[in-house]
Amino acid sequence: MASVFSLHAQLPPAERSRQRAQIRPDIIEVTAVKVMIETHTHNAAACGRLRKAGQQDDDLRAHCDLTNFRSSPQPTQSSKPPTQDTDKDSSLFLPTSPTQKQVSPLPPLYMASSLPIGHHTDTTAAEQSSHHHCLSSRRPQLRLRASSPSPARRRLHHSSRHPSLFLTPTNLKSIIHGGFAQRPQARAGNAGAAEWLDDDGRPRRTGTFWTASAHIITAVIGSGVLSLAWAIAQLGWVAGPAAMLLFAFVTYYTATLLAECYRTGDPDTGKRNYTYMDAVRSNLGGAKVAFCGVIQYANLVGVAIGYTIASSISMQAIRRAGCFHKNGHGDPCKSSSNPYMILFGLVQILFSQIPDFDQIWWLSIVAAVMSFTYSSIGLALGIAQTVSNGGFKGSLTGISIGADVTSTQKIWHSLQAFGDIAFAYSFSNILIEIQDTIKAPPPSESKVMQKATRLSVATTTIFYMLCGCMGYAAFGDNAPDNLLTGFGFYEPFWLLDIANVAIVVHLVGAYQVFCQPIFAFVERRANATWPDSAFITRELRVGPFALSVFRLTWRSAFVCLTTVVAMLLPFFGNVVGFLGAVSFWPLTVYFPVEMYIKQRRVPRGSTKWICLQTLSISCLVVSIAAAAGSIADVIDALKVYRPFSS
After folding, report:
1. 440-471 pLDDT tens trace
2. Where are the transmembrane segments (predicted)?
């Protein structure tokens, strides 16, 4: 009979010190653990109790209290099997012996970091030594009851239920020697794992076709729809609608290619890619990953700046509409947009504390409803204005060259119009992140995403055609660059106020949809770089909510940065065109085409390869031209602009 080792005392002092430094509060909240270990080498067992001491501790303190065992050659007949705890949290006693029946199938426990046992033991050396003997024939039992983890910590499961989790001997050994292994894969034959985990060992995703469609519509039907009347005015009745249909087709087609790259290898069963950069890394690798990261996240930051500008313009328009209604249209009703940008930034600081993409689905639905609201109002006002005019305005070739518009300005504005239309269809930069929320299979994530893309692009194209064309029909060459805030309409002022409020609410949600990938990227890198930092991992409890100190600090700083930049560059139309131009080709066309060619092994020089490369090169030319037009317009605006004076 061999002596049973103490969980804590078994390790060398250096190893114990190393494990103390690795204790992190972001792993899991453990309320109670009873452990009895049977080893093949020592044929011995031990037990311990792990209890978390308080919610507000900086470190997760483990306490090991060895339980009394009496030496006996065999368990007596009166020995009672373990029973379930009567606590409201469901507890589970699971055998490490293969001969004992498991109570119920539950998913394997996974953690992302080490959780050493035996730290800060409560028992004295004498108490430990009195319990160091128990017979090897005693059947070891294991129970783990896990409390509901906070949202900011490990997403062990989606709901607030408190399931017991099966702790395997392999994982237990990993605990004793310094940490868990990587997240286990959910085995096909494990019913418990299939119930709680996806095939990558992460909590089962809950997104559907409808939630994916809501995310896309929130991202696509944004403030860009309000500039489409101006864009069509630059191109005319022929080139304007044609460009809109062309960009819609290109966006849809390349989105279907990108959706098939969510998994590397087989689009249904291959390895998942959680972000756009992950997909590029898995399929292309090399310097293209860095290029993708710079373009993607720069575009997302730019979108956040553009939406801050757009929201301030809408809030400013609400005030001006009331002023015009009260004092007449002769009153200039001037006001600064800076206070409105600051107000929008304060709201975003609050909403930015939502931990991740999965938890903003409700905000996307609200934002999508707001999109349809203000787009419908703009469409109705355009129809009413057209009827009032007695016919359609505009021409086949767009704005005429004359006293107000030179030939050079006509060219630059036409190129910028292409950028505006491209921006109006921009969502590929967050497509992979949206697809990673979908619950599948069956059907596969790519099938669901392609279906959601088809519905979303078709819906938005119809709205775009109606809003853009009716706006141009109502105002002709004088179409404003923002249909609802450029004061092409003055009455009914209350309807305009409703539309502008809807724009602001939509932009609050759209800002989060585009910024959550940035937040996730920075926080993943921070956790990987400083895994033992209390500033990075610590959370504060505020009632039922858990606030991360790092998340509160850095996300607030990010919102402040975008707000300040927006106050420096309040050129909404110009910013929109430039963003659409610089991001459309690499994110919407180039990377999806290249990844599809690599993943599907399209032969170089084949007809399909030539068609895909022709599409990519053509879109590159359009993007360069549109970016040039936007830059030229920004330079003209900067000649008469003074910072923070808008």
Report:
1. 767 788 888 999 999 999 988 988 888 888 88
2. 209-232, 238-262, 337-354, 360-384, 455-474, 494-515, 552-572, 578-597, 609-632
Q: Which residue has the tokens 């853009």?
A: 468
Q: Could you tell me how many residues make up the chain?
A: 646
Going from the C-alpha of 526 to that of each of 369, 379, 536, the distances in angstroms are 35, 46, 7
Residue 553 pLDDT more than 60? Answer: yes
Phi-psi region of 394 (alpha: psi -120 to 50; beta: other; left: phi over 0): left
- Give the mean pLDDT of 119-131: 41
Q: Which residues pair with 93 in a beta bridge?
A: 143
Task: Locate 427 and state its tokens.
Answer: 């969502």
pLDDT band at residue 424, thresholds of 50, 70 and 90?
A: confident
- Tokens linked to 239: 């080139």
- The Cα 283–Cα 263 span in angstroms is 10
The β-bridge partners of 215 are none
Residue 560's H or E segment, with its range, is helix 549-568
Which string of DSSP letters, residue by residue, matches 85-96?
A: --SSS---EEES
550: tokens are 């790092």
pLDDT classification of 224: cutoffs 50, 70, 90 = low
**Is the Cα dihedral 607, 610, 612, 615 positive or negative?**
negative
In this structure, the number of other CB atoms found within 10 A of the CB of residue 163 comes to: 21
pTM of the full predicted structure? 0.62
Token representation of residue 588: 């919407």
| Pair 194, 38: CB distance under 8 Å | no
| Cα→Cα distances 521→275, 296, 302, 419, Å | 9, 11, 16, 27
Q: Which amino acid does the sequence have at 602?
A: V
CA dist., res. 244 & res. 255, Å (int): 16
Question: Residues 280, 287: contact at Cβ < 8 Å?
Answer: no
Look at residue 476 and give its three-state secondary structure.
helix
Four-point Cα dihedral 98, 201, 104, 39, nearest 10: 30
Distance CA 83, CA 17 (A): 36
Tokens of 287: 């310097």
Residue 632 has what pLDDT? 78
Q: What angle do CA 318, 322, 323 make, to 5 degrees?
A: 115
